[in-house]
Each structure stands twice: as C-alpha cells, then as structure tokens.
Amino acid sequence: MGDLRSYLNSLRHRNVAVIGAGVSNTPLINILLSAGIRTTVCDKRSSAEIGEDAVRFENCGAKLKLGDEYLNDLTEDIIFRTPGLMPDNPFLQAAVAQGAVLTSEMEVFFKLCPCKTIAITGSDGKTTTTSIIAELLKNEGKTVHKGGNIGTPLLSKADDIKAEDIAVIELSSFQLITMQKSPNTAVVTNLSPNHLDIHNGMDEYINAKCNIFLHQKQSDRAVFNLDNETTRKFAENAPAEDILFFSRLNKPENGIFLEDGKIFESVNGRTTEIMQALDIILPGVHNIENFMAAFAAVSGIVSHNTMRKTAKSFQGVEHRLEFVRELRGVRYYNDSIASGPSRTIAGIKAFTEPEYSRQGSAKSSNLILIAGGKDKGISFDELGEVIAERVKTLVLTGKTADLIRAAVEAAPGYRCPGENSTGTPEILQCNDFTEAVHLASQVAESGDIVLLSPACTSFDRFKNFEERGNVFKDIICNMK
C-alpha cells in the first residue's frame, strides 16, 4: 500500500520517539527501524527487563532511553505515545510546547487504513463484541483484520489490507482520548465508571469515549446502547445519520432488541425476528447485549442466517467467563478480564439468572466468587449488594479485599454471623492468590460454580489480567 510507504518516507528526515516498547508499539518500532528512520525507544523498564527486543532494537540502530528518566528531554519531532501514558503528562506537554507532534500507532493507522472500519468501545464487552463482529463478517465471507486494544497492532499490517476488506478495531479510552478520526461504524457497548484511577474524573473518561463517533461523516453509522443513560444521549451529538440502537428493555425504531426471549431487528418500526436468545451459547444476559450490538453493527452486511449460525457456534474469548474444567462436580470459570465491579456483577448474574443462558445457572446458594486486586477508584457498593444476594461464599484476596468485604457487610441483603453460624454469604480472606483459589476449591461442593471475577485490576500481583487468568487456569488444571 502506497500510503504507508509515503508516510514512512515523510519521516526520513525527522527524529521519532516511541514511548513504550510493549506489545502495541514493538511492531511500530520494527517498521520505523526497517525504513531507516532515526528512532528513540523510551521505556521505564531496563534493557534486561525488556529482554531480547532491547538488544535487537539497538542493533538495528535505535537509541534506547530506559529507566526512571525515560521521559526526560523529549526533543524528537514526532512522539508516538503508548496508550497507557496520558497526553497531559508534563513531559509530553513540554515536548508539544516545543513543537513536537504527539500521535499514536492507532491514530496513524486510522489515517492510512484503506478499507472500511468498524470500531468498538465501552466500559464492558468491548473485546467480546469486537470478536463477535469479526466472526460474523468472516462467516459472511469477508476478509477481516481484527486488532487495536484487543492486542494486535494494525499499522504494521497496513500493506496487507485491501480496499474491499474490513478492519474491526477495539478502542480503549486511552487510545480514543487523542483520536481525531472516527471509524465508518462506531459501536459503544455501555458506559459506567472505569479507569478513574488514571482519568481526571468521569467527564474526561466519557469525553474520550465520544471520539469514537464525534468525527464521523453523515454517511457513517453509529450504534448505541439504548438501555444505558449515558450512551443513549450520545445519539444527540452524533453526526452520522445512520444511528442504530440495541436494547433488552425497549423497542427502538431502528436497531436490534430483545422481546419475549427473541432477538428482533427493527427498520423504521418494521420488525423481523432474527433468533431465539437461548440459542446464544455464551452465558449471561450481557452476552445477549454483546450479540445485539454486533448484529446492529453488521446490519445490511451480514445475513440473519449467518447471525444465527455464529451465535450458535461462537465459544467466546479467553479470560471472559471462560469454562476451565469440571472437577468432582464443581465447574470452574475464568473471568479474569473483570477488572471493574460492573463486569463482575455481569459475571455473577450470568450464573444466577437462568432465563437467557444455555449453560445452566447456579442458584444463589451455589456460586463461589473469588475477587480482589488493585483498586481503580470505583465504588464497590453495588457489587456488595449483588454479592450479598447471589453468592454462597466470597473468597477475597489482594489489596481491595477489605474494601469489598466492607461493601458486602454493609449491603441490605447481608446476614451477619450469629452465635452458631457464619455470615451469609460466608466471607473468607487470604493474602496469597494461589491460596485463595485452593480455598475456594476446598469449600466447593458438587453442583457449585467457582468463578474468578476479581472486580479489580491485576496490577497488585500480576503484569496483566491475562497472566492472572492463566495462573488461575494452571492451578485448576493441576488439581488432582
């Protein structure tokens, strides 16, 4: 593709800094160095911590600026920001004030992408909805390029993308906060407080999410959750004329909705049945919402028949209510992605609301929850109420264990321990993660479900939620 080559050629006489040598930026560093561009790699980690990549970058001509002072003296002409570093960082602001251009791998990809784009954001359900959309399009015979926040950088693959392909992209608030170009189809799954330990309040978080649709054209499409108060209002400011809603609770004039256990499509008020909700094999009503959002995104591109077949076969995404194994009649599920209370609430309800789940649901007396981790500055009050009403045993670990415990014990549905009984739900607490998993297994009886759904980030003990989920699965799979 000529556009990528032209862009790289435009950088040949410029100095470029890439901040962060992790998964999202390593392919970017590779293509910059391959094009002979003067590149400085900035990372808080040491060369030993980065590993072989650091040696390879240096051998290919990169200048490495590592350690605690990796952001000092940013004098490069163009700075690629890693998504985890906010643009209001004083070092970045100082560089911009001196004339540097601040950008990101994803922003450049959107400028150069030759094909139609569908992008998904939201507080919960982004990855699953992104994966469903990609699967729907593939099953319809389209060539799909899936990436973004889902873990696959796309800029380095731009040469392989053809005009008739479709790029399906998950976008986080950290990626969106500086975006000035929106996708052809924007999907917002929902919005609730999240990442408030990093964002400067809820308004900044919401405003970042709005960039997914604010720069659209009239000919584009925007898909919003009608049941979420914040996303419902987004339609008022969306420049796209093709606005579709999805809803479990209401019937939109245009969009996808649930009624009497069936999923329908509405076009100018005329409805057509797509499928039975129970045919979706993923557990939980939140996954029905994910499918409805996906159906709206591909409406007119993917047939209802393909929608049905995909819903009946899609097994889900790793670390998202992922079935691990059944041992002595106890089923174990890995929901390590649940780094906020709203995700854990959805996970709990997936196994305690049987109406729309083919997986078989636990009664409130059969669910054992493992939770706790690093605090994101979000209230646990609502989660405490749901746990008190629906969980048999709560096993807490991590830095937020005391906060979650306090929220459960303050909930109206919590029953305090009596003279000869424990509280309801029973709350167990331990410092070690492995010990917590074994403790949950020890108290589980045949017919129970053990669910890892932490409601917190993993950063108190693990480098990311994937590592946490993999450790959980290893523990469970190694149990005799």
Topology:
Blueprint: H1 2-10, E1 15-19, H2 26-34, E2 38-43, H3 47-50, H4 52-59, E3 63-66, E4 78-80, H5 90-97, E5 101-103, H6 105-112, E6 116-121, H7 126-139, E7 144-148, E8 166-170, H8 173-176, E9 185-188, H9 202-214, E10 221-225, H10 229-234, E11 242-247, E12 255-259, E13 262-267, E14 270-276, H11 285-297, H12 304-313, E15 322-327, E16 330-334, H13 341-352, E17 367-371, H14 381-390, E18 393-396, H15 401-409, E19 426-429, H16 433-443, E20 449-452, H17 465-477
Parallel strand pairs: 1-2, 1-4, 2-3, 4-5, 6-8, 6-9, 7-8, 9-10, 10-11, 11-12, 16-20, 17-18, 17-20, 18-19
Antiparallel strand pairs: 12-13, 13-14, 15-16
Helix pairs in contact: 7-11, 7-12, 13-14, 14-15
How is this structure best described in words?
- The chain contains 17 helices and 20 strands.
- It has 480 residues and is α/β, with parallel strands linked by helices.
- It folds into three domains: 2-103, NAD(P)-binding Rossmann-like Domain (Rossmann fold); 107-313, Mur-like, catalytic domain (UDP-N-acetylmuramoyl-L-alanine:D-glutamate ligase, 3-Layer(aba) Sandwich); 322-477, Protein-Tyrosine Phosphatase, Chain A.
- It has a nine-stranded mixed sheet, sandwiched between helices. Strands 15-16-20-17-18-19 form a six-stranded mixed sheet, sandwiched between helices. A five-stranded parallel sheet has the order 3-2-1-4-5, with helices on both faces.
- Helix 7 (126-139) crosses helix 11 and helix 14 (381-390) crosses helix 15.
- The longest helix has 14 residues, at 126-139.
- 48% of the residues are buried.
- The model has no long low-confidence stretch (mean pLDDT 92).
